[in-house]
Amino acid sequence: MPKDVTDVICPFCGTLCDDVVVTVSDDNKTILSVKNACAIGAEKFNHQRLPGRVKRPRMRQPDGTYKEVSYDEAIDWTAKMLVKSRKTLMYGWASTSCQAMSIGHEIAEKVGGIVDNCATVCHGSSLIAIEDVGVPSCTLGEVKNRADRVIFWGCNPAHAHPRHMSRYSIFPRGFFTVKGHKGRKIYCVDCRYTDTAKCADTFIQVQQGFDYELLDAFRTAARGEALPDTVGGVPKEKIYEVVEELKGGRFGIIFFGMGLTHTMGRNHNIDEAICLTRDMNDFTKFVIMAMRGHWNVTGSGQVLGWQYGFPYAVDLSRRDQARHQTGETTSVDLLNRNEVEACFYIATDPGAHFPINAMISSSKKPTVTIDPHINCTTEISDVHIPVAMVGVEVGGCAYRMDNVPIETRKVVEPPEGMLTDEEVLTKINNRVDELLAKGGA
Amino acid sequence: MSEYIIKNGHVFDPVQGIKGDKKDIAVKDGKIVEKVSSSAKVIDAKDKTVMAGALEVHAHVAGPKVNAGRWYRPEDKHFDSHKKPGITRIEGGKSIPTVFKTGYEYARMGFTFAMEAAMPPLYARHVHEEIHDTPIIDEAALPVLGNNWFIMEYLKNNEVENTAAYISWLMRQTKGYGVKVVNPGGTEAWAWGLNCLTIHDPVPYFDITPAEIMTGLMTANEYLGLPHSMHVHQNDLGNPGNYKTTIETLQLAEGVKPKNTFGREQVMHSTHLQFHSYKGTNWGDFESAAKEVMDYVNKQKNITIDTGNVTLDETTTMTADGPFEHHLHGLNHLKWFNVDVELETAAGVVPYIYDPNISVCAKQWCIGLEIALMAKDPMRCFITTDHPNAGPFTRYPRVYSWLMSKKVRDERLNTFKNADKVIGATYLANIDREITLYELAQMTRAGPAKCLGLMKDYGGLKAGMNADIAIYDINPDKFPSDGPAIEKAFGNAAYLFKDGRICVEGGKVVDMGQKKTFWVDAKVPENKQVMHDVREKFLRYYSVNENNYPVPESYAPHQHIITVDATKA
Amino acid sequence: MANKITLNLITCRTIQQGVGMEAGKTSKKYFDACTIIHMHPEDFKKLGAWKNTNVKVTSSVGSVIVKAVETREDLVPGLAHIPMGPWANRIVPAYTFSTGEPCFKGFPVDVEVATNERIMGAIEVVQDACGLIRK
Amino acid sequence: METVTLTVKQVPDLYLECENVNPDAFAGKTAEQIAKMGAYQGKEISTLGEFFTIAGNAGATAADTKIVINGDCTKMKYIGAKMTAGEVVVNSACDMYTGSWMKGGKLTVNGDVHSFCALAMAGGEFTINGNAGNYLGAAYRGDWRGMSGGVLRVKGNAGSDVASFMTGGTMIIDGDVDIHLGTHMEGGKIILKGNANRRVGGQLVKGEIYVFGKINVMMPGYKPSGEVDLEVDGTKATFIDYTGDLGERHPKRKGATVYGHLFMKK
């Protein structure tokens, strides 16, 4: 008899919806259907049963083809690579559990790795900004229960966080927001008229790359100072009008995304948005939140935070200290500058998401990729170690975009003999210990 | 398990009333015993001081705001991240050490237990993840309840039983230890950008006052018979003139009787009292009110306090008192972190520099020391830095040196830039008292253990208690006269036994021990109303499902559950 | 016929790209979602191209072949969008301004019609650049 | 003053961390002792002697020590970092952190420097006879204390995020800069002889920026408040005085608000 697994956590985006219902086959091996998830989340669960999944590690042969090898062989190769390399990029972590990350960090500390997560090409800019000016924020339930002014700035939840608007930000009725959507004023600031913009009461079309100037104009307007006639293509009248509306609210929130983090000035755009938020607290209650992408990229920042004190780009290469300098110890910079000798990727696909010049640099170095599926990175790696899908075939702790920790659930069994991230990392850790005890690779 | 006998040491144990006498301490199977076999390993403690392991009664060492303070301050560890030789991991952070450094440093100073002072229930899993990764020391965490919607709604109608049932449910969900209150009502008001600065300010919408919240929680706490009392961070923290509110709050305990099986005698623990003992009307005429506050504390036996000593460092303030952090940011303009937590609480973080050249900071330093030095009963006054708010806990040895040597603290006092002004606004210059080793053992061992309801196992060296033992290179007959020597001795335990295992030797961590997580399972009669309310709130107002809220036991692999039974209350 | 126009390019997530990614990097869904460039109708006119024509997009770091399409998410003239993925990343400049973040949004590209050029597969487009395809 | 001459004999494969190459670390050491000082390349620790030929002994103190470095230093970090006195001359381009946390003495680089140089510089003279990278004279991540003292001169161009969180000292750039000059500045003086791309003085609290060339896009929070005749680094000219950033908080002194100033040469 098929059965329903309830309260399942969706391991796709930082919204970390926890109300998904997954129907699984009687033998716990196959996912039959998925309820409550968005299109992307449902696809992730469904991928579990797609044919053609790689079930054993593969190693690239001299002729460029891949040959299946045992887990032990792949793990031995990986451990030797790590022990030999003087500086290794250990990138990814955003799609695995906090428990797995911890083991990874232990390995990095022994072999001199640089641990970086997907924030590096995503909300890294936001983390820099928060390091610089802090961040007044809240949990998503606060937004649902209190917010009456909601701004989406350079983010497009309709595409990237599909259930965000219905669960937290636009439509839900909360304790002090009994009118739901009707009680909220929704603003969208973007260079495109996105599907999110279509849900907004007010759309402000900013010229691409002028967010910093526009945010500065908002702050200038909030202080009652003069403005030029237009800023970033937006007339000053509009800016004054919106600022007054925001001041008139009881609880305002700015959600922002890649439109700020990737655009010219990067961290400064967020920095200025945070400062605007801070200023608005002189008039009413205002908070701001990053729309974190990967479901557990926040978790990686948290674990690195409590173990080393930095949220990403943590350089343990000297083994006697932890360092962090965005622009130096960040993955793309390390690859651009050929600062590392080997690459270790886990739970990520830089091959698809890094600029090609960084990946060309990566492809010239010994590389191991640990990922459930074949992707653009596995196919330029020396070794691909497939693992169980975290959040589908194995549980583990994850952190939502508002840093709320939620335990993901196992809903089905992984393919027979398939190891989990935690198991693979533990084996690598043990093998590294053996090699180091013998004095190296 | 191995046996040890600690010989020839000067033992200070308030539990047995031993004041520096030479006494052998025997250890077997993790406990202190009357005697051990002849094969026991001998530890020579000649010319050394032997005490029980110390207990931290109030520190922010694990959880979301602590970690925010860590990762948003890379500058706090850019030149302060090192690996020491041996089995330890990399240790980083000055004002907010990483979890590894936290465990090691407490152990090196002779501590074996630390209470995380503020756990937002929705973030309990995070707190436990960090506790799990903190080596050696035992830990527990206090869920914050003073701005919780359930609590405010029940107490508005004086529903003590429902309040107690909810607390019981919440402690089980969060693996929590007791009842923490931070700026009652004020933090909920902060969700609208407001605050409650007196204990009679009504909480917006909830139609209840901070005084009613505290009285209700004290009653519920005793109804349940929890090991610890209500633990309160009062309203109006850190503002000149707040001492009146402080005394008024303490007065709420008058007539409330402790009811528990743990030997606890207080019904209210008022934390970091230094921040609440200010006279004056602004930062210009700001003065110490330590005398006024301590006169009250000394005569009111059912309250305990801790100091919150300013250590004169660059540090990171962090508290569930959201409006206070916003206020502080307005004063120093340094980076402000804030998170409001749905239905429960909030937290803020702001870096702060306690600059000895600024007289306000110097006065705060005086007030913290005055509170400890004016305390008549060292079993009710505990030394803290409200880590990291008044300074990092790693400065305890320095705080001890100021408390234990008038010479050392007067040297500091007299060299402040505005020494005359500081001395004129405080009492410290006229205080001659020096805390003795025995009093220190009361203030850092026996006292906090009793206050936390842990006196059966912690805080003393009596047979049957945990073999948590700190041995310091201090000869009581030749107590060091200079500050650095005192600091060195207290900062580098000659030995630390944790559950009968030597974890620190010669100031060096040699064993990770087997740390335990404590939590309290309070049994109450089945309460359908509360369970209905819980379901309702999760369905309608929380952003997570009820089934994803609890912290599973796997997060506390060596859990120690204290069970209380309030089913017949 | 103006054969080459210069546009300001951004790369962003789309829901189709997200679905395709979770279906698998080698899936048709992923290919269909990411091998496109969204352009404004006026820019189609300037380019002299029909909708759904293959174009060659060239930045300071390289070129890629994708299909030019119109989108329901309106752009302003002069602004173009390729969904994030290995195709977009063939032309994203890796320069980070020492922030760790490459130039994913807001860099100039030349677009020209390339009707007869083939669009590479997801893995091919990466392996090709890395010199891993044996000819 | 004693001179130690370092000549590169081996260019590192990765990057060499030269935190020991400064007068403070060398002081009181002979050439042999200097050769034995450590330098990291990733996790591998080697010695300065493996990478440099070292001639001459250091003086007794940092102030008595001059270091001259010849050969290719493009892959060497931290040269002259944290120096408090003495002199360093590098006849090559250098990598990151050159002269960072410098407190005194004189540092000259006859070539380009990469990013994060002169971070939180507090004193001394630092001259770059080439181009500088990003975050020149800025604060370390998270810190609100950038360059606070000393004089920094760049003969060529500088990158983005120059002088972020600057609180004091003087920075003179003969060439152009990219985006974000003097962001979050709270004191000190920047003289830019060339052009700036965009975002000059954003979120500036206090301090002065002089621009001889053009700014592509002015920040909206700046407003012209008149013209002044000034002599700036030897050049006499009329400047338009802009006050700002009006979007940012500003301190008050004796009841009057203190603004930052951006002087644009006419």
| The CATH homology group name of chain B | Metal-dependent hydrolases
Number of helices in the DSSP assignment of chain D? 3
The percent of residues in helical segments of chain D reads under 10%
Strand content of chain B: 15-25%
Which strand order spans the largest sheet of chain D, edge to edge or round the barrel?
5-1-6-8-9-10-11-12-13-15-21-18-17
Radius of gyration of chain D: 20 Å
Give the CATH architecture of chain B. Alpha-Beta Barrel
> What is the average of the pLDDT values of chain D?
97
Shape of chain B: globular
CATH topology of chain B: TIM Barrel
How many alpha or pi helices of chain B? Answer: 17
Rg estimate of chain B, integer Å? 22 Å
Strand content of chain D: 35-45%
Task: List the secondary-structure elements of chain D in sequence, H or E.
Answer: EEHHEEHEEEEEEEEEEEEEEEEE
Main beta sheet of chain B, described?
7 strands, mixed
Fraction of helical residues of chain B? 25-40%
From the structure above, extract its key features:
heterotetramer; A: 441 residues; alpha/beta; Rossmann fold; Dimethylsulfoxide Reductase, domain 2; 3 domains; nine-stranded mixed β-sheet; five-stranded parallel β-sheet; 21% strand; B: 569 residues; TIM Barrel; seven-stranded mixed β-sheet; 17 helices; 28 strands; 31% helix
Give an overview in words.
The complex is a heterotetramer of chains A (441), B (569), C (135) and D (266). With 441 residues, chain A is α/β, with parallel strands linked by helices. Chain A has helices spanning 39-47, 71-84, 98-111, 124-133, 140-146, 157-160, 164-169, 211-222, 236-247, 258-261, 267-280, 297-308, 331-336, 350-353, 356-363, 421-437; strands spanning 3-8, 20-24, 31-35, 58-60, 66-68, 88-92, 113-117, 134-138, 149-153, 185-190, 202-205, 230-231, 234-235, 251-256, 285-290, 314-315, 323-324, 342-346, 367-370, 383-385, 396-399, 405-408. Chain A folds into 3 domains: 3-47; 58-122 and 295-437, Rossmann fold (3-Layer(aba) Sandwich); 125-290, Dimethylsulfoxide Reductase, domain 2 (3-Layer(aba) Sandwich), CATH 3.40.228.10. Chain A contains 16 helices and 22 strands. In chain A, strand 16 (314-315) and strand 17 form a beta hairpin. Chain C has one domain (4-129): Barwin-like endoglucanases (Beta Barrel). Chain C has 5 helices and 6 strands, in the order E-H-H-E-H-E-E-E-H-E-H. Chain C has a 6-stranded mixed beta sheet. Chain C is globular and about 35 Å long. Chain D has a domain at 115-265. Chain D has 266 residues and is mostly beta strands. Chain D has 3 helices and 21 strands. In chain D, 5% of the residues lie in helices and 37% in strands. Chain D has a 13-stranded mixed beta sheet. Chains in contact: A-B, A-C, A-D, B-D, C-D. The interface between A and B is large, with 64 and 60 residues.
